[in-house]
Amino acid sequence: MAAAFDEAHPIAIDIEAVSPDRRETIQSQLTENEKLAAAHLPGNLDENLVSIWTAKEALSKVLKTGMMTPFTLFEVEKISETERGLSGLFKSFAQYRFLSFTAGSIAVSLVFPKLSELDESLGQLRDEICQSLIGVAVA
User: What is the pTM of this model?
Assistant: First the structure.
């Protein structure tokens, strides 16, 4: 999957499978604060962990560093549940925010400038992503 954007308004997406088999590996790349946040969010722990992972990986794409930068630098500072999924901010990159959602065994995160306005078309985009990835309708 790819995202097209104007260089003045970067956006990135990351998609990962949710699986209890990956929990230990993912937790090894998260800070203690991120692990605590994932445990205290409503819903499935593995989905929450992968959502944080994908948010960090999408941020690395926005910054064009990929996984060549220590993941601790991409630490998620605030995360909360919204009607669209999980939403959060980054500790060291306050100019960006993320939106994460899961459907079936897939987690998707979008990272974009913090001051961006999101409209109803985001819900449609979410539904289309989920349908194309796993063939399910999102309620």
Answer: 0.86
